[in-house]
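Structure ticket #2291
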Amino acid sequence: GGPEREMGPERVPYMLPFRTLLDSGATLAFGTDSPVTDIDPIDAVYTAVTRRDADTHEPLGGWLPEERITLAEALRAYTAGSAAAAQREGELGQLAPGMFADIVEWRRSTNGQVSGICAGGELSAPYEPLCEAHRRGAHRHR
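Resolution: structure written out below.
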């Protein structure tokens, strides 16, 4: 499974060296390849953290396990890293006063299922406290 399936085993040692890049001081900027792949980033986050294929969960120990990154590092790559790559880090990429923000909450107890979404200050999933920052005006949204 995983990269061997797509690129062949001889290329695997050179694929997605996330830990090496972070340790060298690089900023990771993640995004989906939609419509080529699913727009939902959860599978890519899983793969970055576990180094396992999201569909098959193989290989058991992960391919190039020394290149694993933490969940926080993967989420940072999707948020702050992507904002930096787009040269918009002054307005996107973190939850802070004056920054644009849509918020999605995942709770560990829901096994990765979204438990709340707040976009543009409007609650679209049944978790009321999630939009409190928007209601107080702490975060802006266009």
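Closing remark: The CA atoms of residues 74 and 98 lie 24 Å apart.
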